[in-house]
Each structure stands twice: as C-alpha cells, then as structure tokens.
C-alpha cells in the first residue's frame, strides 16, 4: 500500500515544516560524511587540506542517510503526539546515521561534554568516529539511545519486540537492513507479531530499508517485484506500506504521511484492545522504505556509478591524501548540504532547526528505556529455602532438580507479573519447568483450535515465551533485559550453540558497558539454563550430545561471564536465586532435568554454592584425626552425572582399599578453578593447593570436554598430576551408563584411574583393576542385550 501526497488523508503537513525537516536531515548527512572523512576543519571554513582527512577511512555511508531520514521524521511525531519512542538501527556500521541526529538533539553533548555543540565539539565528534581511542562504526554501547549494536546482523527485530513486551506505552521503531533481512535470525523474528499483546505490550514498527545492495551484491528482497514483496509481509501478518523514491522533497512528504498513518493505526489497534479488553492478533503496520544506497552522496566516482550502487556501501571514494580530484569531490559533496544554512558561526545547529528535536527524555537518544538499568526494579523474590528438598541421608533419595527449581520460578513469576518472563524453544515441560503454568501460560495470539484447550497451555496473557527459534527467543530476552526487565532462558544443552554468536555479542556489549560506559546503569543478568544435557541424551543419539557451549563462555571477559554446575536440587535453588538477583553478567547454569541423587541440605547447599567449591566431608575419609591428614588421592567432580559416578567410584575405592585416603571435592562455580589473577572468582594458588594438595594425584570427573579443565588450571602447581575425564565425542544410542563408559567418566574407569595414578596401589591393586575391567564388559553386554542398565546401577545409592 502506498500513501501518496495526493492520497486522501487527515494529516496536514505544511511545506515550511517539510523544508525544515529536510534541512535537519541535510545537517545529519553532513555530520555523517564528516564522521567518516574529517579529523579537523569540521565546518570547512578554510580550504580542506589532505592532513585534515583521516588516514584510515572507516565506517559505512550507504545506509546512513536512510537511517537519519527516519529518525528525523520520528522526531516530528514524537513532538506532535508526545510519543514514548526508541529507535533501533539494524544495518551494520550504520552508526553515522544515528549518531548525527543524537548529536543534533543535544543528548550526545550532555553525556560527553567534550563533544560540545560548537565547532570544537564537532571536530572532536568527527575525529572520534572509527578512530583509535574513539568509538566504533556500529551503534555501540557508547551510542546514546542504542540497545542494539548491529555488529552481527540479524537481531534488530527480535531486540525490538523484546523491548516492547510489557512496555504498553513504548513505540519501538526498528530499521531492518535489506542485507540483514537475508539472515536466519531476522527471518524468524518477523513472526514476533504473533506474540505481541496490544493490551499489555507496546508496539513495534518495522521499517525494511531497501537500498538495493550489500557490500558487493544486490540484496534479495530488493530484486523481487513489489507484489511479491508485499505478499511476503502480508503472509507474515503485517500491513505493508511502501515509501519509495529518490527526490527528497517528494520522499519527505511520502514519509511524513505514511509514518503518521502507521502511528495512528497502531494507536487505534491498542485503543480497541484496551477498551474492549480483548487481546487478539491484529495486522500491525510495517513500512518498506526504498531509497538509493548512499542517498545524496556522490553519484559517480572515477567513471563508476556510486549512489544507488554497492560502491556507496562503505566509503564512496578514498585516496584523498594523494588525489586532489577526490579531495575536491569530498568538499563539493559536503558543501552541497549547505552547512552555512544549518550551523551558526559557533558551529551550533541554528535555533529554528534545533526546535525540531523533542525535549528531555522524549529525545530518542535520552529515552530511559534505552538505558534500561535506570528503569530496572529488583524482583520481588520468594525465599528459595522454602522450596528445599529434605535429603535425609546424603545420596539416598532422587529428585528432578529442574522441577524443584520450577516451583521457585513459578513464584518468582507470580510475584513479578509485569517484569519477568520465561523463554524457551518449545521445551518448558520437557525441561520440567511446567509448574510455572500454575500461574501463567504460554503467550499465543495466533489462532486457537478446540483441542488446544487440552494441555496446550496457550493464552494471549501468557508470560512463557515459546517459539522453535533460539535466535528469536534470545533476541527477545536481550531486548527485554536491556530495557530494564528480568528473564530466564532455557534450552537443550547441545543446541545452545544456535545462539553462540548472540551470546558473544551480548557479552561484548556488557563488557564495554562495565569498563567504558559508566553512564549506563546495570541491567539484569542474562540467565541461561542448559538442560537435557549430554549425559542424558543417550536415547536421542550423537547429534544431541555436545557440552561445548560452556567452552565458548569461558572465552569471554571474566568481568561478565559465570558458569555454574549445581549437583543437586538444593544447590540449583541457591544458584538460581543468586543469578536472578545479579546484574551485568551472563550466567550459565548446567543442570539436567532427569531424576538425580540429592546430597546437601539447603543450609549446606548455600554454604557450598557461596564458596563455589568445597570438600564433601561425608564422602571423604582423609580427615582421620591423625598427622598428617594428607589424602592419597583427590577425587573431584563438576556436574550432576559426573558427581554421581565419582561418588560411586569413591565408594568402591573405600570398600576395596580401606586404608586409602580419598578426599572428595565438588565444583559448583567453574571459574573457581582459574587463578585469582585471571577471574574474580578464581582461587588463590594457596587455597587451590590447600584443597587439591600441591602434589597428590587428582582424578577430575567433568561434565564437559576434559580439555576445558586443563585450560582453566594451566597455571596451577604440578598440573600434570590433574587427570580429567569428560565427554570425548564417543557414543550414540546408548544407555546412560554405557554412554558414560564409552567416554570413561563411569565409576569403573575412575577406579582404574586411581589405581594407575596412586603409587602405592598400582601393581598391588591388579586384581581390583581386573574386576573393574570385567564390570565394564558385563555392563556393556547387559546394555546391548536388554536395552537398559542393570537395576543396581539405576538405583545406586551412596552407601556410607
């Protein structure tokens, strides 16, 4: 649908107002070009010299004019309707198109006083862009008003919807680049409109910016017919409006009419839903904006087409230090915006243009939702101790750990029904988190069938977010957190890799915020539960067995990442409570959903999790009251299934070798293994040696890939004595014990390891080693014959 200047519409826009909007936009384009090229002489008051041009020309011009074009038109409507609005820029490296209007509205200078609204401030503003010691060419955390960097393409739309959830008065306008629109995460994010409740949520206005090209190729959506393009978005459930052209005068009029129509359509949708109290899925508006790439820039350079072609994607022309023709072309280009009409002698935007900007927090660069920590309120938390498991004797009863935690999450949800949501890809019940359905259902505004009443748990008012796209879920959650709320994400461990890059980008955002952007208030941590873990994917096969997400996490800054392996339900409760209260971290919790032995009372669990690592005295026998109390071997574990097998191995050792002194250590906080100089949670070398001894053999049973432990402890004393068992890419369709045996994390292989590494055993324990090998053979045969493990393995309990 196209709303033309001749169309019948109720919006009266004076030509004088459009001329001012165009002038403001010209100022934005002038600043955008200046950021890319200039290091001094910002207003070109003197002849431009080569040394006044940056030596490295970085940043992207191509999408910048379109980004500022929309920003300026949004400003008009914010003032007219007192809109509460933020703006997300999807095109990568498009920061000049956002930084320029943020500077002109005054927000940038308020946050960075040395970037003042005068000639000297403009010089600094230009120089800092893509310059050492300055800022990047994306909408980085340093950019006021930004909650989306765009360093990796594909996440802008899901971030926008996440920001709109539970923000009923917020309008989130998101510019989706046509290159970005080719990514998988962006393609699934279009379906977010099926989850937006017009009663309780804000609105998202997507604007697909078709400028025709990526770095060096046409974009797909720009090369299909308008009919096909509109049908695509009608199929997604939107009402598409098209604004296309290249003449600025016509385009301003088109955009003003279309954008205002969309805003009023959104308000009408919300008013109807909020008046009737009926939440149904409307056809939300979206805009297809088609402009030339590099709009208003050089049309041709060295005989090659630039404007409207991929050559304008980055820097339209280079070599300015040695090519006077190119240098003059830059001068002509920038002076073509008539800066003398836009800025006064001091270098400030003239008052009649300055008046076009909204005021105070209505400026999109100053909107508090884009600095969500300002709005964040602490969760009203129940006491996690009230959900504790009565364990009896350690290792004597079994519980589904995540289900115990789910009752805690249920009441967290109950207490925080406007600022907490649970996110997961169609696995809430599978991961045993279904108790949350007692207080809320799954958000659903698409069609209902009668059979859905029988167990589907769907409701327009639901607060459980399920969609079979980890990308979209993660994007929703990030947008939700960045605008000041709280959430919890869960997924199958093997498929957390789907969001590897999204986690990377969010972790980098947090790291920059904590180290370099003090004006950003802390936001709620990103909490990720990995369940359905590798050791209980024996029935699903090799494809479902991968514990490597935590390896990726450990590569990120120690200031922002935490990894927890609670061994039982009470520890999981303690860890979850801690993570939900924390800010500015990515917390990864690894906990299986199946039944597991319970080891610690809630009091002991709190102590153990607070320390992050500790000796389990009830499983150890080296504290015998005699001097010296030095163990012969340290048995260590990290993870629920490896802990069970390590305890079983310890029990065998104590039975077979009564004089063998075994110290049992469990690790909850993975980063305790690093040295204190590498991670703030790391143990000092003194404390590490106190726990593990400086020279005794350590047999470490780990949940993940064994080399990760070696990476973490590489600086520890005599590290070659630390022998790690973990997943080694062995297994397929197996029983649980069979899978453990194939990867040598089982009790029998651990006993063999102790025999091999403890000098006083070795040949003296030959018969025990033989029995362990026979046990391995017997259990493998039993699994092949019966398809299950022996009952004594399935129902094993700690015997001491």
From TrEMBL:
Residues 13-374 form the Xylulose 5-phosphate/Fructose 6-phosphate phosphoketolase N-terminal domain. Its cofactor is thiamine diphosphate. Its EC number is 4.1.2.-. Keywords: Lyase, Thiamine pyrophosphate. Residues 593-798 form the Xylulose 5-phosphate/Fructose 6-phosphate phosphoketolase C-terminal domain. It is an enzyme of class 4 (lyase). InterPro entries: Phosphoketolase, THDP-binding, Transketo_C/PFOR_II, Xul5P/Fru6P_PKetolase, Xul5P/Fru6P_PKetolase_C, Xul5P/Fru6P_PKetolase_CS, Xul5P/Fru6P_PKetolase_N, Xul5P/Fru6P_PKetolase_ThDP_BS. Gene3D superfamilies: 3.40.50.920, 3.40.50.970. It holds the Pfam family XFP_N. The keyword Lyase applies. HAMAP family: Phosphoketolase (MF_01403). Belongs to the XFP family. NCBIfam families: PRK05261.1-2, PRK05261.1-4, PRK05261.1-6. This is Probable phosphoketolase. It comes from Spirulina subsalsa FACHB-351.
């Amino acid at each position: 649908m196209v709303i033309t200047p001749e169309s019948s519409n109720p919006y009266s826009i004076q030509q004088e107002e459009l001329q001012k909007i165009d002038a403001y936009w010209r100022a934005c384009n002038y600043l955008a070009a200046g950021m890319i090229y200039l290091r001094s002489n910002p207003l070109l008051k003197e002849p431009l010299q080569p040394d006044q041009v940056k030596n490295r020309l970085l940043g992207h011009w191509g999408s910048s004019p379109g980004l500022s074009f929309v920003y300026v038109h949004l400003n008009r409507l914010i003032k007219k309707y007192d809109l509460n609005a933020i703006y997300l820029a999807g095109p990568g490296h498009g920061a000049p198109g956002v930084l320029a209007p943020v500077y002109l509205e005054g927000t940038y200078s308020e946050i960075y006083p040395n970037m003042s609204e005068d000639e000297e401030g403009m010089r600094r503003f230009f120089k800092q862009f893509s310059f050492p010691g300055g800022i990047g060419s994306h909408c980085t955390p340093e950019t006021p008003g930004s909650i989306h960097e765009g360093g990796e393409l594909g996440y802008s739309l899901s971030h926008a919807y996440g920001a709109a959830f539970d923000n009923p008065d917020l309008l989130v306008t998101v510019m989706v680049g046509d290159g970005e629109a080719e990514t998988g995460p962006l393609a699934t994010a279009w379906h977010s409109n099926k989850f937006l409740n017009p009663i309780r949520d804000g609105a998202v206005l997507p604007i697909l910016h078709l400028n025709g090209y990526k770095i060096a190729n046409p974009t797909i959506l720009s090369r299909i017919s308008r009919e096909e393009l509109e049908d695509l978005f009608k199929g997604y459930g939107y009402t598409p409006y098209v604004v296309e052209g290249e003449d600025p005068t016509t385009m301003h009029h088109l955009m003003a009419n279309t954008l205002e129509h969309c805003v009023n359509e959104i308000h009408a949708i919300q008013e109807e839903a909020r008046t009737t109290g009926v939440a149904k899925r409307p056809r939300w508006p979206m805009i297809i904006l088609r402009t030339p790439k590099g709009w208003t820039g050089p049309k041709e350079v060295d005989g090659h087409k630039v404007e409207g072609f991929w050559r304008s994607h980055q820097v339209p022309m280079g070599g300015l230090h040695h090519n006077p023709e190119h240098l003059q072309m830059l001068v002509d280009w920038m002076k073509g915006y008539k800066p003398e009409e836009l800025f006064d002698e001091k270098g400030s935007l003239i008052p009649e243009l300055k008046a076009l900007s909204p005021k105070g927090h209505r400026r999109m660069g100053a909107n508090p939702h884009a600095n969500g920590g300002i709005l964040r309120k602490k969760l009203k938390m129940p006491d996690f101790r009230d959900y504790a498991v009565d364990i009896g004797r350690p290792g004597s009863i079994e519980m589904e750990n995540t289900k115990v935690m789910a009752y805690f999450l249920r009441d967290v949800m109950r207490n925080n029904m406007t600022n907490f949501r649970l996110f997961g890809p169609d696995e809430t019940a599978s991961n045993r988190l279904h108790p949350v359905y007692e207080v809320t259902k799954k958000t659903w505004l698409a069609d209902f069938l009668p059979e859905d009443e029988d167990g589907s748990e769907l409701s327009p008012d639901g607060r459980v977010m399920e969609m079979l796209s980890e990308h979209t879920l993660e994007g929703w959650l990030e947008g939700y957190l960045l605008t000041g709320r709280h959430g919890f994400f869960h997924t199958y461990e093997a498929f957390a890799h789907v969001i590897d890059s999204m986690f990377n980008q969010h972790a980098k955002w947090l790291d920059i915020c904590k180290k370099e952007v003090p004006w950003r208030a802390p936001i709620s941590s990103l909490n990720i539960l990995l369940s359905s873990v590798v050791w209980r994917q024996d029935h699903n096969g090799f494809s479902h067995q991968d514990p490597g997400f935590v390896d990726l996490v450990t590569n990120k800054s120690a200031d922002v990442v935490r990894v927890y392996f609670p061994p039982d339900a009470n520890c999981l409760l303690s860890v979850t409570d801690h993570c939900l209260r924390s800010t500015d971290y990515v917390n990864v919790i690894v906990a299986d959903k199946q039944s597991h032995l319970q080891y610690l009372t809630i009091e002991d669990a709190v102590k153990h999790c607070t320390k992050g690592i500790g000796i389990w005295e009830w499983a150890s026998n080296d504290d015998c009251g005699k001097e010296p109390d030095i163990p012969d071997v340290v048995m260590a574990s990290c993870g629920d299934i490896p802990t069970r097998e390590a305890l079983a191995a310890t029990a065998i050792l104590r039975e077979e070798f009564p004089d063998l002194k075994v110290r049992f250590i469990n690790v909850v906080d993975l980063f305790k293994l690093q040295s204190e100089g590498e991670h703030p949670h790391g143990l000092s070398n003194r404390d590490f040696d106190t726990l593990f001894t400086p020279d005794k053999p350590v047999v470490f049973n780990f949940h993940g890939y064994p080399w990760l432990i070696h990476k973490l402890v590489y600086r520890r004393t005599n590290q070659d004595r630390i022998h790690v068992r973990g997943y080694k890419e062995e297994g397929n369709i197996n029983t649980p014990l069979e899978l453990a045996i194939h990867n040598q994390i089982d009790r029998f292989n651990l006993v063999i390891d102790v025999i091999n590494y403890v000098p006083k055993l070795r040949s003296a324990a030959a018969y025990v080693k033989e029995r362990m090998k026979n046990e391995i053979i017997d259990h493998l045969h039993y699994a092949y014959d019966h398809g299950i493990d022996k009952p004594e393995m399935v129902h094993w309990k700690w015997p001491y």
